[in-house]
Design goal:
The structure is a homodimer of 315-residue chains. Chain A is of the alpha/beta class and 315 residues long. Chain A has 2 domains: 262 residues, Aldolase class I (TIM Barrel); 37 residues, no CATH class. In chain A, 40% of the residues lie in helices and 15% in strands. Chain A contains 12 helices and 8 strands. Chain A has an 8-stranded parallel barrel, surrounded by 5 helices. The first copy, chain A, is globular. The mean pLDDT of chain A is 97. Chains A and B meet through helix 7, helix 8, helix 9, helix 10 and helix 12 of A and helix 7, helix 8, helix 9, helix 10 and helix 12 of B.
């Protein structure tokens, strides 16, 4: 699939950082940067912008905060654009330098649909500082239709927003739903870039990304070897092997999977696991699955399933 | 997705047997049978019919041969139908008892497209013995269109064939290709049951099965926890969680994954691995990937990739 408008955003360090409290070493992040650059990837999302009043640097690694001095140690000014994610309510744009003083190119604001107005305010301030801006509406499989329609209209009318993402936080959606949402986002947000971010609870992250592409979505999130919270994400290596653009080169990604990600996966255990499959199939937040995967009881799948079903008892 | 015509065929013991030379214990196969029966699965494919002149019982376990006496030790006559696969040229229907003397209900004949005439002859003999018959045309991503059209017409005209399977042996296809093949099989083989068997090289086994369902395919192959050669298959647990038919019960499958399949996967290492991804993305047989995964060199992904690319040099 080749369209010149298609861009790949690798968010290994950002979404993968949810596996290790963002404690990647600078050396490792530098090597990921080089691998992505050499692979022809368009964006690297390097972490979160977070307020140190809310999160302690003693508990979280540097990629929870993305200070410019840390980014400068691992990245360089080149064709690979640097993106940072900010959660609504978790950071202040007052802590963000002007674009001219930072290696960061893009801010993606993550919010639940009820907080779209707050996200719009943040993107306005970040655009005034010179950044490209996206709004990522999380957990879209829980959004009510009238709220989504209103949010998309607001975003379309906000000239300081460059793009909008379809985000399947719970890994619940399948192709027909991706088709529906892609058509809705693209037809409502005609002047915006539209992207997709998927999770692999049901082994549908890559296929759902393809279905977004087929419907015209041009901004594609991936992570190396699928590293990400819980079941993880669409893999960057599958995306690059699928896209026909000759600018992409798979080899640097294969090399860093070999040198780093095989061992990291054995340690952090992201990927297809039955508890993540269960929360995905039930359209639930993966937090209960992540908790059980960290317990000695992780293999008691039926007990976990019964507990999730019990939460749904009609009352 | 609920259609009463939809049937799930679990081929864990058959396709999974390619991981261990079919050396499952009778006790284990009996427990898989019970789990599938309690889960409401329609068919259990229990192994291959193979000639002992060609394959030694010293080297292969019982499920390479599927003698009726072995099947009788693990299965019973009930709503769960027993299926056996026979490869063209690897067994003789003379070794097959009449249906009335066997617990087997169904024979699936696997062949490459060049051998469809041989498959038709075998199905004719098996139908005369009383069995339900399917033809599984393997490696469909290598089939030339005129050959496929001719084969499907022949199958449609053979009244002793009950069904035909779309088989993505190399795990190469994605949704648009599954749509195309599903429409072709269903429109050509109007009087036949049409099924789909997928491999997970590109993490598309489940999604491609869904795309087959959307286009009207009713016979769905799965394996427990995806166990199968190389990257493995569409998982039975994902299929049952997706299908809305209330006859399906996920719990027995979750239980046996917990008790057996987690440990077996650590031993046999089926599933998403970069060498299988590479052969899948290049539309190649997985044999080179299986070989490298059994070697100490398995993590040298770029070397493996370069070797596969080199095989494709224009000459």
């Amino acid at each position: 699939m080749f369209r010149p408008e298609i861009k790949v955003l690798d968010c290994t360090i950002r979404d993968g950082g949810l596996c290790n409290d963002h404690k990647f070493s600078h050396d490792f992040v530098r090597r990921v940067f080089q691998a992505l650059k050499n692979a022809g990837v368009d964006y690297m999302e390097i972490g979160y912008k977070s307020s140190k009043d809310q999160f302690s640097p003693d508990k979280f690694g540097p990629w929870k905060f993305c200070d410019d001095k840390d980014i400068e140690q691992v990245a360089e000014d080149c064709s690979l654009k640097i993106s940072v994610m900010g959660d609504v309510g978790r950071f202040s744009p007052a802590d963000v330098k002007p674009r001219s003083e930072s290696l960061v190119n893009t801010y993606r604001i993550a919010c639940y649909i009820k907080d779209v107005d707050k996200a719009l305010k943040l993107t306005e301030e970040l655009k005034a500082k010179g950044y490209e801006t996206f709004i990522n509406i999380m957990a879209i499989s829980h959004a009510l239709e009238p709220e989504l329609d209103e949010a998309l209209s607001q975003i379309e009318n906000a000239k300081y927003v460059d793009g909008i993402y379809i985000v399947d936080s719970f890994g619940y959606l399948y192709s027909e739903q991706i088709h529906y949402l892609s058509e809705k986002y693209i037809s409502t947000c005609k002047s915006k870039k539209v992207g997709i971010h998927t999770h692999n609870n049901l082994q549908l992250a890559f296929s759902n990304t393809i279905e977004g592409i087929i419907k015209g979505v041009n901004y594609l999130d991936g992570t190396i070897y699928g590293m990400g919270r819980g079941a993880g994400n669409c893999t960057t290596e599958l995306l690059l092997s699928f896209l026909k653009n000759p600018k992409f080169n798979l080899r640097p990604i294969l090399d860093i999977i070999s040198s780093d990600f095989i061992d990291m996966m054995a340690k952090y255990r992201w990927g297809y696991q039955i508890p993540y499959m269960i929360t995905g199939s039930l359209n639930k937040h993966p937090r209960s699955a992540i908790a059980v995967m960290d317990s000695k009881n992780w293999k008691n799948f039926t007990e976990f399933y019964e507990a999730r079903i019990a939460e749904e008892d009609l009352v």
